[in-house]
Amino acid sequence: MTKPFASLNRAYAQTFQPGRLSLGLVVPIEDYLPEERPAMDRHIDRVRLAEELGFAAVWLRDIPFEVPSFGDVGQMFDPFVYLGALAMQTDRIGIGIASAILPLRHPAHLAKAAASVDVLSGGRMLLGVASGDRPEEYPAMAIDYETRGMRFRESVEYMKAAFHTNPRLENGFGRLNGHVDVLPKPTAGRIPMLITGGCQQPPEWGAEHMDGFITYPRPAAMQQSIVEGYRARVAEACDVDKPVMQSLYINLMSAADAPARPIHLGFSSGVEYLLRYLKEIEALGVNHVAINLRFNYADTEDTLRQLAEVILPEFASNV
Question: Is residue 181 part of a domain?
Fold first, then answer.
């Protein structure tokens, strides 16, 4: 029997369903070359279109600096500021970050920002969290890159405490003495947090303390092993199951039967191969795929409508 996921906020319930796959989109919803910055063309309209078409969630990235070796600046806007704008411009779609770099932000600010978005959006905040993979950012903030694993763990501990009323906690980020509070409080009492990769933690830690797992696309056998290993650790530590999501870059070809060709963390293909691939990873236990259209060279709106017409009806209905 499939175990249920925890009863958390509205976005968590509609995006993650046991035994089912849903689809989301990475913002900006546009194509741009590695040496380019996104134009953010019609960016709000495209998120609204994604909601109208039935995508489960949109995902922002936390990229504080332009790092040439990394080659991407995401949506450029601060993710929490932008999520506040999206909360006011949408009604149903989940709005999340994949992922906030915890060691580079104070957890009091993170807790307040995430809870604010959650309340403003009516429970639609999803928080992917990470320890960071761009070493250049750490000296720019006078933070030791080598201690990011400890800072990540203490940030999670601090945020979880801050979601309670008048919390008490002391760690490297400060002391909560029970006489101060962080407001507002999330709609479900806490914000769903999903760990990206391992974050310098033992695998058992992420399975026990996080509300889900974010990973990257891999060959089927390897992905199955990763998912099954995660679920086994969750089963040992928790009474509920927890979702797995992955990213996927696609370039959707005009010919429906076009074969797959590898691209960075994804593939170019026709819609038929894409559908088979998504069905395969759904069977492996993946619950959500965040599609990135950065390398998609067809018209963006046409691609979204084709995905909605051919792909979305095959998977979980979310919004």
Answer: yes
**Residues 6+ away with beta carbon under 8 Å from 55:** 23, 24, 25, 93, 308, 312, 318, 319
In this prediction the pTM is: 0.95
CATH code for the domain in which residue 217 is found: 3.20.20.30
> Into how many domains does the chain fold?
1
Residue 70 lies in a domain: yes
Sequence-ordered list of residues with C-beta below 8 angstroms from that of 79, at least 6 positions apart, any chain = 60, 61, 62, 97, 100
Sequential pLDDT tens for the chain (319 residues): 578 999 999 999 999 999 999 999 999 999 988 778 999 989 999 999 999 999 999 999 999 998 888 878 989 999 999 999 999 999 999 999 999 999 999 999 999 999 999 999 999 999 999 999 899 999 999 999 999 999 999 999 999 999 999 999 999 999 999 999 999 999 999 999 999 999 999 999 999 999 999 999 999 999 999 999 999 999 999 999 999 999 999 999 999 999 999 999 999 999 999 999 999 999 999 999 999 999 999 999 999 999 999 999 999 765 5
